[in-house]
Write a structure and sequence with these properties.
alpha+beta; binds 2-amino-4-trifluoromethylsulfanyl-butyric acid; binds cobalt (II) ion; 5 helices; three-stranded antiparallel sheet; Creatine Amidinohydrolase; 271 residues
Amino acid sequence: MTREEVLEKVRYYKTLGYKVPQEKYIKTPEQIEGIREAGRVNTLVLDYVAERIRAGISTQEIDDWVTEVTAANNGICAPYKYEGYPKHVCVSINDVVCHGIPSKKRILKEGDIVNIDCTTIVNGYYGDASRMFVIGQTDPENERLIRVAKQCLELGLEAVKPWGFLGDVGYVIEQHASRNGFKVVRDFGGHGCGIEFHEDPFVFHYGKRGTGCLIVPGMTFTIEPMINMKKSGVRISALDGWTAYTKDGLPSAQWEYTIAVFDDHTEILSR
Ligand code: MF3
Ligand code: CO
Ligand code: CO
């Protein structure tokens, strides 16, 4: 299907009352190529961190690595100064759900579970992804949380079908989390991503099948479920206005991909 045919079909769905993506967020092949390159660099930055993360380093050191490797690959760290965010990457440890701010004072220690969330701009295009890391050995329940969170992302990805619905994605994620006794965070979600950092549509990690935004070839968006051990509630630090903690102080895990939807397949642009 050409992009014009896709747009025509989307307009028709809209007349039927479906929620559909804005045309400016249905990307051209040229735009997807640009987002693919940004995603490639973003993945390479996360690979660099993966090789080096260990007990005894400060989270500021991770910020320094990300800053250097991104620049060496003609990239820009999207988080820096984004809505006032002070650092280049988010480092979220244990009961931090997301948006943890790197600091010289926070030293990684045995048993920590850490999410590293990188977003890279290359030639004006964005790639966004995050991964979990275990520092040394951790509690088996933490291991299970990390594994189930990853499965939630993979199941969400499998539920992405052109002319399906984002509610199909949220549904499988929530089902899998709750089957395993865990809770999906509701205060944050995935997002369109590629020509801006956070585009519409919002990608819920819970929902009902056959509801929500229509999924259309040419869309690029993230899926990034945050899964809490016991309760879904989060609170934002009053000190820095960013760090999101679980309300109950129990751990949280998250994985994120940026993906592109095509007629006949879905591609992971950054992981
Ligand atoms: N990378 C995060 C996301 O997945 C957003 C971080 S915003 C920042 O959407 F300002 F904290 F970097
Ligand atoms: Co991210
Ligand atoms: Co994101």
